[in-house]
Design a protein that fits this description.
The complex is a heterodimer. Chain A is mainly alpha-helical. Chain A is built from five helices and no strands. Chain A has helices spanning 3-25, 40-62, 75-95, 97-112, 120-141. By secondary structure, chain B is an all-alpha fold. Chain B is built from 22 helices and two strands. A two-stranded antiparallel ribbon of chain B has the order 1-2. In chain B, strand 1 and strand 2 form a beta hairpin. The longest helix of chain B has 34 residues, at 102-135. The chains are: A mainly alpha, B mainly alpha. Chains A and B meet through helix 1, helix 2, helix 3, helix 4 and helix 5 of A and helix 8, helix 9, helix 18, helix 19 and helix 20 of B.
């Protein structure tokens, strides 16, 4: 994506968000007589956001279209990380900390480790040992419970 | 109060141990590129909640100070700044390493970090009590104007795109409005979710934006995860420089410390700018500017003195007015408020022992830093070898635990992922994240003071311009916005 397209997208996103907040704020009732009310500040801020977003849009439209830089980012690695993170946080409570973390650590290390450095025993070992250490530290040393999940651990 | 503070910090082995631990972990996070000192503070913040107030705060202080100092190790040995604050250290530290003087650069860097930190801590100790007395006279009108001032400065100074910074700041303010409103307690933007009544937790937003986002980014950049370049070898004796020779740089040292201190006090600018600005200033005032960049000690002194001087400076507005100027102090604010210490003009009366405790802890941390970083240099350099593909997934787990432990709510765990993704979107669109977090923190302060001031005057807006201090801050705010627009227009023409 060129910088120009990015800037246009930015303006549209903030414009839409500002409009949404402004609309939602209109529904907030005025409770106290002497007060500007709880709707006032949200309206000012979302109004400002819309104005600035429009300025951003005008500026972006006047920019010259640059060349899209060839990006060397690894889309597969990025999306796999995002997917693993989402699954990890959603399963955190139902599956329980230890099991969930073992699976996440192992898969995420696999995603990030370059092929030539992949040593399954090392990554597997770490994925099991680290959650156990963290769990012990939190639950037994600083008395902070972590989700137990399905199997009671 | 000073006696109590000494008892809580100096005579308390647990507290001293935590400062030591904080400094060591901070140096590691500061030194390893890809981990940042802010990340260290954010990860340990939830843990500090469960500790005795002074112990928790001292841990954060150790992490803050160690983190800023640790960046110089990789700046010199890898030519990559370990934290953004050490950017300018690379300019002369790198060439020094090329010439085989890596040891000297490291030694001077550590020594001058200590001196810069020390000067700023003393400035903090002497300025803040007086400033607190001045701010005692502030009413809601002044606080509103200061918050507006801080917000405009932060938005306009962060990152390359000024207008994106303003948008990010406004977005942060919007997030602060979720939940129960100040003054009348109206419930807004909760969409029927009772979990949102209390609003978002700043810890969760911080972890998402400053840790989770970075780790997702490393997934996109996994081709480079092994790092490039080689590690320079170093050998050193003492701190690599004689006392006399070091002191001969006194002009540079004092100038850089003042630059760092000033930048620290101003909201939103932060360590990386301090290091760059002080490097430029040292170069311009030097008798031999042409030698800068070729590997002279002067460059390292300028950068490393300034970035550590930011620490004391940034705590001045935080302690006296409750205004965090950068992400590190925003984290620190979270650590203070959870223990019932609310920074502001009355903080010396209400929680004086803790504030003096903070001063002492800073001094102790600074001493630990200069000893540890030198004595443990070999160990810290080894840490640079830990592969990031192992480290980052573990840090991600710590992020999730941190979010969970801040409220023991699974919702916060989900939000941390959501804010991580928002941070990613911001990164892709080149919208800076710092204005968002500062906007979030200052948003509720702005609204509350605005509404209180207007209630007192019966809705008369002139109060903001008839009170002199309030007026001054508003004028500066308007000026900074005007300058922002002018700069942007100029840039567009070019």
């Amino acid at each position: 994506m060129t910088d120009k397209k990015k800037n246009i997208l930015t303006s549209i996103l903030f414009l839409a968000f500002g409009a949404f907040v402004f609309y939602e704020a209109s529904a907030i009732p005025l409770v106290m007589k002497n007060d500007v009310g709880s709707a006032f500040f949200p309206k000012v801020i979302s109004g400002a956001m819309m104005v600035v977003a429009v300025i951003r849009l005008v500026m972006a439209l006047r920019e010259k279209e640059g060349e899209a830089k060839a990006s060397d980012s690894d889309l597969k690695g990025g999306w796999e990380t995002i997917l693993l993170l989402c699954v990890y946080v959603l399963a955190f409570q139902p599956v329980g900390f230890i099991l969930d973390t073992i699976v996440f650590l192992f898969l995420e290390m696999l995603v990030l480790t370059p092929k030539e450095k992949r040593s399954l025993p090392l990554l597997g070992g770490l994925s099991i040992v680290v959650p156990l250490i963290i769990y012990t530290l939190f639950v037994y040393v600083i008395n902070t419970p972590l989700p137990k999940g399905l199997f009671g651990f | 109060m000073v006696n109590e503070a000494i008892q809580m910090v100096l005579l308390n082995p647990v507290c001293l141990g935590l400062i030591f631990f904080g400094v060591v972990i901070g140096i590691i996070f500061g030194a390893v590129p890809g981990l940042s000192s802010t990340m260290a503070m954010i990860l340990f913040l939830p843990m500090s909640f469960g500790m005795e107030p002074m112990n928790g705060i001292s841990l954060l202080i150790g992490l803050y100070l160690g983190g800023i100092s640790g960046g110089l190790i990789s700046a010199i040995l890898l030519k990559i700044p370990g934290t953004a604050s050490s950017i300018a250290t690379v300019f002369d530290g790198g060439p020094m390493a090329d010439k085989g003087k890596a040891g000297e650069a490291l030694g001077v860097g550590i020594l001058t970090s200590f001196v810069g930190g020390l000067i700023s801590i003393f400035a903090l100790m002497f300025i803040s009590p007086y400033l607190a007395k001045v701010t005692l006279a502030f009413t809601s009108a002044e606080y509103f104007s200061i918050a507006v001032f801080a917000l405009t400065i932060i938005s306009s100074l962060s990152g390359n795109s000024l207008i994106n910074g303003i948008l990010a700041g406004l977005f942060g303010i919007t997030l602060s409005m979720v939940g129960i409103a100040p003054v009348d307690g109206a419930i807004r933007f909760t969409f029927g979710q009772s979990k949102l009544y209390g609003g978002f937790d700043s810890v969760v937003i911080l972890i998402g934006l400053y840790a989770v986002t970075d780790i997702i980014m490393s997934g996109f950049g996994r081709k480079h995860i092994l790092g490039t370049g080689t590690k320079y070898k170093y050998s050193m004796r003492g701190y690599g420089i004689g006392v006399k020779e070091y002191l001969s740089h006194w002009r540079n040292i004092i100038q850089s410390a003042l630059v760092g201190l000033g930048i620290g006090i101003l909201p939103g600018i932060g360590g990386s700018t301090a290091s760059l600005l002080s490097y430029t200033a040292a170069k311009e005032t030097s008798k031999y500017p042409e030698k800068f960049g070729t590997g002279i000690v002067d460059g390292v002194i300028a950068s490393e003195t300034a970035n550590n001087a930011v620490i004391g400076g940034s705590l001045i507005p935080l302690i006296t007015m409750g205004i965090p100027g950068n992400v590190a102090t925003a984290v620190f604010l979270g650590g203070l408020t959870i223990h019932g210490i609310s920074p502001g003009p009355l903080v010396f009366q209400k929680s004086g022992e803790y504030i003096y405790g903070i001063f002492i802890a800073l001094l102790v941390a600074n001493v630990f830093m200069i000893i540890c970083e030198r004595a443990g240099l070999r160990f810290f350099v080894k840490m640079l070898d830990i592969p990031k593909y192992i480290l980052l997934p573990i840090v991600m787990v710590c992020c999730v635990i941190g979010a969970y432990c801040s409220n023991f709510s699974i919702f916060d765990v989900w939000y941390v992922a959501v804010f991580g993704l928002i941070g990613l979107l911001f990164k892709v669109l080149k919208v800076p994240a710092t204005p968002m977090i500062i906007g979030f923190i200052l948003g509720s302060m702005t609204e509350e003071n605005l509404r209180q001031a207007l209630m007192q005057t019966g809705g008369d807006w002139s109060i903001f311009v008839t009170r002199p201090i309030s007026l001054i801050f508003l004028i500066v705010a308007v000026l900074s916005v005007a300058m922002t627009i002018r700069k942007q227009l100029k840039k567009n023409k070019a």
